[in-house]
Amino acid sequence: MTCIISTHSYRGGTGKSNITANVAALLAGQGHRVGVVDVDIRSPGIHALFGVDPHAMRSTLNDFLWGRCEVEDAVIDVTQSVVPQGAALGAGRVLLVPSSMRTGEIARILKEGYAVELLNQGIHALCQKLQLDYLLIDTHPGVNEETLLSIAVSDCLLLVLRPDQQDYQGTAVTLELARRLEVPQLVLVVNKALASMNIAELRDEIEAAYQTPVACVLPLSEDLIRLGSAGVLQAVRPDSPYLAALKQVLPYIARSVPGSGQS
């Protein structure tokens, strides 16, 4: 049975797409079949991390939502982009469903919207047809209809925030919504912490404020800044301190697997 994980933040710029891509890479490295869906239809971008040329996309999530193709027709195997150089490929896979970068497609979504229930159908069809162990949903920041759907169908919500007052206030709103939607596992991921910060104190303060576990506190990463969204960090710098911290998320994800009895 597939474990569905949504990565979300109340505001943009928190680094949720990098977190999604690198969690997918880490799970694939453990031998799992991992799907990634870019539900940030208004401002898509996670395909860039996996090295996918937007002009080379034959079909996208948009095509499925407009009835032009089956959702599995939009899948791109991006496994090679997450494998560290010199490492064995192994049995794991990362399969991406991107959203369209075409201006007309984005404008149509903004103007007309789409039947959100189709997104729900597509998510479950991917899980079944691709025989996924995990499906990661990279959401649109803030609160909108597709975000609420993504959260509602999730076994685990990774809620990303920075040490920033606006993020703190928005996170409180999102957590309340997720609790009302009865998401089984809620986990906070604090990103872009400065080296001068006391990580233990920061974790304790945030956990106490939200009564929600902080899976990890990720450092502000020069490695990611240098990479500039041109790849997945796990593939080029697997020994990065950022990744060492991010691996602390994996036990929470494992506890979210349906039927594990640990969520």
From TrEMBL:
GO terms for molecular function: ATP binding. It comes from the Bacteria. Pfam families: ParA. The keyword Methyltransferase does not apply. Keywords: ATP-binding, Cell projection, Cilium, Flagellum, Nucleotide-binding. Gene3D superfamilies: P-loop containing nucleotide triphosphate hydrolases (3.40.50.300). PANTHER family: P-LOOP CONTAINING NUCLEOSIDE TRIPHOSPHATE HYDROLASE, PARA FAMILY PROTEIN CT_582. This is MinD-like ATPase involved in chromosome partitioning or flagellar assembly. The lineage of its organism: Bacteria, Pseudomonadati, Pseudomonadota, Alphaproteobacteria, Hyphomicrobiales.
